[in-house]
Amino acid sequence: MGKATKIVFAVICVLFVVSIFYNTTSLGGDNSLSDAFLLTLAAFLTLAIMSFLYEDNPYYKFAEHLFVGVSAAYWMCMGFWSTIVQNMIPKISTSLSSAFEIEYTGAEIKTIVLLYVAVILGILLLMRLMPQGGWISRWPLAFIVGTTAGLNFVRYLRTDFITQISSTILPLVVNWKGFGSFFSDLSLSATGQMALMASNLIIFIGVFTGLVYFFFSKEHTGVFGKASRVGIWVLMITFGASFGYTVMGRISLLVGRLTFLFRDWLNIIS
Amino acid sequence: MKVKLVILLCLLCCFGLTSLSAQETTTEAAVDSMSTDSVSIPVPAPPTNLTGQDKDNDHGHAIELSWDLSADDGNGAKTVIQYEIFRWTPDKVGLMDQVRDTLDVIQRIIDNNTGTINPESEKASILSVYEGLSRGELFDKRRELNATLEQQHEELTADYSNYPDNGDWLYVDKVPMTIGSFDDVGDKELTNTDFLPDYVDLYYRVDAVTENSDIRSSSEPFGPVQSSGQWYNTGRSAVLGAILIFGLFTVLFVSLASKGSDLYVRPLGGIEAVDDAIGRATEMGRPILYVMGLGTAADVATIASFTILGRVAKRVAEYQTALIVPTYDPIVMSVAQEVVKSAYLDAGRPDSYNEDTVYFVTQSQFAYVAAVNGTMLRELPATNVYMGKFFAESLLLAETGAVAGSIQISGTDEIAQIPFFIVACDFTLIGEELYAASAYLGREPKLLGSLKAQDYAKALFVIFGILGLIAAHIDALSWFKELFKVAN
């Protein structure tokens, strides 16, 4: 550990302690010391994660490992207690229910059979830990992947194929009463004739050229290539809009974190 | 003083007269109202031609009813304001309801949820009987009552056929005036009070009701009619058609590919770059980081990612380059381990396979990101490959990879995340290109055949779209759009 590192570490320790005392006095109450400690720890971890913007450093590593360790343990416990203990044991075993100090509720025979199927598949999944029976773990994996692929096949065909065709079948000419009527009312209103016709045209061209771009069996040259270029433009414009929309959401997350630092921790803003 | 007294007396007189007048008016109004209610509203004409049939395309337990409106609904005396629907129900259904109430109370005791029972209700008296029992006794009682309910249900068919003996008309629902149809949709669960049995003779009656609910007229009873479930939902024929067409394409192209036909797939920029990136990593002596995202093994993007991982792992095994695969989901980790192991075996280097190549990090989204970002900066991989399902972590990962100076190739079908990969990665597979990549890389007949099937399905989509565009302008072809309507 270099001299500069030691100095930075010492400064951070001092600031940590000062922050605890400062927040203890400002928070007040019976648990002010523990609350101040937790508040300071939260602020320290926030800043430690943000320090990654500068470069990788020991404080980031500390926060990262703490975060990963705590979350992994948390989700493991949640998985065990909420899935196995809460959902399975009370339905299948009185003795296990009393061992875990939860109430035995029982279930219909078909539910119990299905639960045992899940238990067997879970045990088969763990067989990979055995050198001799590792191949058995492929069966539950095949079951999981195959079942969901089959279920999704019907769902995707319905929503992404048939419903999409139905939604694309739109008239390009809407409420047509002649050119005179059309040009006399060139309103940009969303329900206006021009906006509706333009909207339908964009949907049709967008879907058509987008599909051409995702057609892999033909080289994108000539007219096909030009349609494909239009398709990628449509995609990029869509992605641009999506990008801006999502960035605004992320900014609000940053604002939330800065509010925590400047209001809850430092009391600089009200 | 006298003036004040006179004014006060005058005010009192005015108040007294006004009150008297108001009282008289109220009395007159009440009399008028009574006369309107009981005298002036004539009995309306009844609804006629009541018919019913089993509701199509459902799991059963439902009847569609329709009738001709009363002559006094909107016409004639215009006195009908609504129609009330009644179903003839054997007396035994009342006994079944008592059993259901008891079951409900027992369940509430088991769930510690008896607080919402009205103290003056029937259920409160049931509660007083059962609340002292132990849980074991409650479970026994529940089992016994369920058996009773099943037995009563079995006897119900005979009871329904006894119409009109030993039963009564049960109010079902009402519809407003001008509506001449109603779907009587019951529940399929025997324990529910709305349970409507299948395969029993049901009888219905519809009443035309006036403002005064006592003044009404009933239709001729209709029946018997039976409800039943259907195996095939005709409203979803379009889905079956699509499955058959897609299945046919897939079988056709898979068999063609198996026979060695040269099925052309256009080069994909991002995938062409994978081999170059693996070569770069080998030359630099740095590892390749393969991130599969947050998807589960059930997601199509993750399944496609497994295939690409297999290809990358095989090349990595051939070139003896290091591979790092941090995973978010334990099942994905298991599958990925199998995929990498098989790839090393295929490459003829099973001894080089290291189980720690694929490892589990955590199932917390941002903790996973923190760990992968740390790995990127410490291991400095030459190439980062992001293939699978990504969410808010996409830009965090891709930006860190860019800072670390890695070549980055990404692919996802999450529309909202593609923009972030496009701006931060060197190559991006957009949406379906990810699926195509797995077929393109593998050149396996099954994958290639399914990719070709997808392409021809898209071609069909375009054809249907153009035909639909024409049909949308011609009234006589309005049926064309109906072909693609799917019932819920």
* Quaternary form: heterodimer
Rg of chain A (C-alpha, Å): 30 Å
Helix content of chain A: over 70%
Helix content of chain B: 40-55%
Radius of gyration of chain B: 37 Å
**Overall form of chain A:** extended
Poorly predicted residue ranges of chain A: none
Largest sheet entry of chain B: 6 strands, parallel
Uncertain segments of chain B? 17-38
For the biggest sheet of chain A, the summary is: none
First and last CA, distance of chain B: 84 Å
Percent strand of chain A: under 5%
Q: What is the overall silhouette of chain B? A: elongated
Question: Using DSSP, what is the number of strands of chain B?
Answer: 14
Mean pLDDT of chain B: 86
Element order of chain A: H for helix, E for strand? HHHHHHHHH
Quickly give the structural class of chain A: mainly alpha
Q: Please, how many helices of chain B?
A: 14
